[in-house]
Specification:
The protein is built from 11 helices and 12 strands. It is α/β, with parallel strands linked by helices. Helix 10 crosses helix 11.
């Protein structure tokens, strides 16, 4: 297989991932949304398993052409909180910086699917990047810069180094957080040279790895994570709760425990956003809460992420988990891992 990503229905058919008939049916999807599957991930798809989780996440489906009235082009309000190109300033003490608008792979459930892709956006120009950095310099309350996109690990090691240094030289910034799919999609890109470009004196560096299923945690991905951890980079994860991928207690528990074993702290479990053409991935909040309760009862506290929903429009994240403190006619009670309510007198 070529080293180039599979970026069209024809390429997917040539790799045996869809039939010729399926490729024909996917042409309208390709006209609407970007497609890319790295050869590394394509090789990990079990073509004999119709429920393969990697295939479901990355191989397009005609279901993406079904758009519901509640679905939004910009589900979490990036545009309304963007004072300059490449910046999203939703919270007072942190900003998103989006230096690139392309990814190594395109998740079929992506909440930015209307904004990312080779035909939808480009790396910020030098002038735009300077303006974005000037904006951060003008906001002394900003302590954390979150690099997202697109996938900022698409930058070369040299450009990552230059961007890290520019951010680290802003006196009030203390934390740089990179959000990426690259360790899952193309772990060979995570080289010592690239890792060196993620860090700078005077700032703490975090890398948030987007990973949704244990099958994505390959030996190569584990090795890439270990390289970053050994270099002193703190690793966290974000996971999207997806129907047909990980909406079971076993799938989530196995993933979160394996991440913790590999020095990746589970950070967020995202309820799926109202992105266009993604209703086939969504679960109800009631199902999500039940799954989350069961996972909390099963795994170590180290392996429990926060279960959150991004409020449409960009207000903030909301805690989606049920409290274990319940009101009863007899007063407060605590839900235990045995599923029972235990009276608690305050």
């Amino acid at each position: 297989m070529s080293s180039r990503p599979l970026s069209s229905p024809v390429a997917l058919a040539s790799a045996g991932l869809v039939s010729d008939e399926e490729a024909e049916a996917l042409k309208p999807v390709a006209d609407r949304y970007a497609i890319a599957v790295t050869p590394f991930l394509a090789d990990r798809i079990d073509q004999n398993d119709p429920a393969d989780p990697i295939a479901r996440m990355f191989i397009p489906s005609p279901a993406e052409l079904v758009r519901l009235p509640e679905e939004l082009n910009d589900p979490i309000g990036d545009a309304s909180h963007s004072p300059v190109a490449g910046i999203v300033h939703r919270y007072p003490n942190r900003v998103l910086l989006k230096p690139v608008a392309v990814c190594p792979v395109y998740c079929r459930f992506c909440f930015r699917r209307e904004m990312v892709g080779p035909d939808l956006g480009d790396t910020l120009t030098p002038a735009e990047l300077d303006a974005a950095l000037d904006y951060i310099r003008s906001q002394p309350e900003v302590k954390e810069v979150i690099l997202t996109g697109g996938d900022p690990f698409m930058l070369s090691a040299k450009r990552a180094r230059a961007l890290t240094d520019a951010i680290a030289n802003i006196p009030h910034v203390k934390i740089i957080r990179w959000h990426t799919r690259m360790p899952v999609a193309d772990p060979a890109r995570i080289t010592p040279e690239f890792i060196g470009g993620l860090k700078a004196d005077g700032v703490a560096t975090y890398v948030s790895i987007h990973i949704n299923h244990l099958k994505e945690l390959s030996d190569e991905t584990k090795a890439a994570a270990r390289l970053m951890a050994d270099a002193g980079i703190a690793l966290v994860s974000q996971t999207v709760l997806l129907n047909g991928v990980n909406n079971s207690v076993e799938a989530l528990s196995d993933l979160f425990e394996a991440l913790t074993e590999n020095l990746i702290r589970p950070y967020y479990l995202h309820h799926p956003d109202l992105a266009p053409g993604t209703s086939h991935f969504r679960v109800s909040v009631e199902e999500g809460r039940a799954l989350y309760d069961a996972v909390r009862d099963r795994v170590s506290g180290l392996s429990v992420p926060r279960y959150v929903i991004d409020i449409p429009g960009g207000v903030s994240k909301a805690n989606a988990a049920q409290s274990d403190l319940r009101k009863t006619p007899d007063g407060p009670a605590l839900r235990g891992r045995d599923g029972k309510l235990h009276p608690y007198k305050t």
